Amino acid sequence: MKQNSVIAGTLSLILLLTAISCTPTAQEGGGIGGTGRVSSVSSGPITDFGSVFVSGVEYETNSTVFIVDGQSGVTQNELKKGMVVLVEATLLKDNVTKAILKRTADRISYSDTVEGPVQEIEASGRTLTVMGQTILVTDKTVIDDSVPGRDLTSLVPNVDVVEVSGFISGDGVLIATLIDRKAGAPDYELKGLVKTHDTGSQTFQIGHLTISYSGADISGMPNPTVTVWNGLPVHLLGDQFSLTTPGQLDGHLHATSVELESFGVQENTQAEIEGFISQMVSPNSFLVGPILVQFDTQTVFEGGTGTDLGSGVRVEVEGEVSGNILFARRIELSSPVKLEADLATMNTLDGISGTLTLTGLTGTVVHITAQTQFKGQGAPIHMGDLSVGDHLTVRGEPFGNEALATEITRQPASSAVVLQGPVSTTNPPSIVILGTSVDTTPLPESAFRQADDSPIGRTAFFAAAQPGVIVEVEGMRIGGSIVWQEIELQP
């Protein structure tokens, strides 16, 4: 399918979603001074309990309605850390400072991103194939205790069934936030982006899975004889799964229902979402799961610019919903791992997957998969297009002391070096990040900075830089050495 056909299908989403809404229009109360109430919607993983924390933000849940896999009347006890949920909430704000004083969840909804049989498990347990979808496991993935020993390699292919919650980061690619082992028969379920829609055979694909919707309830979709579904985000349920070819990672699913995924809110609702860009729709719009985000010259970028956006990039977006489009006020590129330097070594068997290291960061091993997105000078499309000496920017996720690359950009030649990732260990004046040790002895006190870029000093910095905290170090390559210039705590 040509790219313009895919984009046309996705742009039709703009019109389709305007007719879908299920919550009241946002209301803001109060007068000059005092407080006001504002409707909001947010999407992200559950990070803690007490009340419910989503992407680290607390929501009170005293009167919340919980919906889990379409079932209402459930309690908060049905939720788990790592579940990616949709929160419809009321915010109490100070009318003068605009500070949010309290967030109260009116409704929290959850459904699996994929549920089905495990087909393949990488020896390291970092990658699973589930019902034709590639599941990437990061340091942030919660492995439920239903998985024996919380060890994914203990799962039995073609026997065990898992429920996965996570972020869609590309065609048939999920970054898992929670993996559960399910007892009993699966309730086949999948979210993803449609491709190769064939109205004649009533089939389409998501990843390596072919879906047949003959006889399915498609009342939640546009008329397939009028609108080709390519590029649309969908949520489907099925009743029969089979391997297309024994021993292969593809498969066939008969769907019982297919519906369009949407935000499901009306005008002027404040929105906050976290996720991975699953598709660039145009130069100034993209999809994060089912959510269409648009940005313009007034949008504030943090951690990068608009040119850094692309499939597989992790973002946090704040803005307002209008016409079921999220117009972004702020976009933060929030990938925990960011590396920049010259390509030093490559190790690959097929030119597509493998590992690489970067000059000056040779303690950091970067893993490349078939799902890694490539862009930049010369339009590389896979690992085999790179050459030693290329200047690269790598964004991704941590794998212990290693990194999983979700995006690699080939840049113009530069002496700049950047190392960002979680702290492994500290032994002042040295700090180890993703396996690379940085000696901070030559840095002046003013080079140690907080997340807001203000100076913090050496002693306070090392007190805050505990294992797991994200830190960025910037420097320059001079001759054969790296001269570090600044080190900063990240949000």
Summarize the structure.
The chain is 4% helix and 52% strand.
Structure in words:
By secondary structure, the protein is mainly beta. The protein folds into 4 domains: 23-110, no CATH class; 112-261, Beta Barrel (OB fold (Dihydrolipoamide Acetyltransferase, E2P)), CATH 2.40.50; 269-333, Copper binding periplasmic protein CusF (OB fold (Dihydrolipoamide Acetyltransferase, E2P)), CATH 2.40.50; 416-489, OB fold (Dihydrolipoamide Acetyltransferase, E2P) (Beta Barrel), CATH 2.40.50. 4% of the residues lie in helices and 52% in strands. The chain is built from 2 helices and 38 strands. Strands 21-22-23-26-25 form a 5-stranded mixed barrel. Strands 8-9-10-13-12 form a 5-stranded mixed β-barrel. A hairpin with a 2-residue loop joins strand 37 (470-478) and strand 38 (481-489). The radius of gyration is 23 Å and the shape is globular. The protein starts with a helix and ends with a strand. The relative contact order is 0.10. Residues 1-11 and 17-32 have low confidence and may be disordered.
Number of helices: 2
Q: Spell out the CATH superfamily of the largest domain.
A: Copper binding periplasmic protein CusF
Any idea of the CATH topology of the largest domain?
A: OB fold (Dihydrolipoamide Acetyltransferase, E2P)
Summed over residues and divided by their number, the pLDDT gives a mean of 88
Number of domains: 4
- Radius of gyration, in Å, reads 23 Å
Strand content: over 45%
Helical content stands at: under 10%
Shape: globular
> What kind of sheet is the major sheet?
5 strands, mixed, barrel
Instruction: Supply the helix-strand structural class.
Output: mainly beta
pLDDT under 50 segments (min length 5)?
Answer: 1-11, 17-32
| Overall number of strands | 38
The CATH architecture classification of the largest domain is Beta Barrel
Distance between the termini: 40 Å
CATH class of the largest domain, named Mainly Beta
Describe the strand arrangement of the main beta sheet, using strand numbers. Answer: 21-22-23-26-25
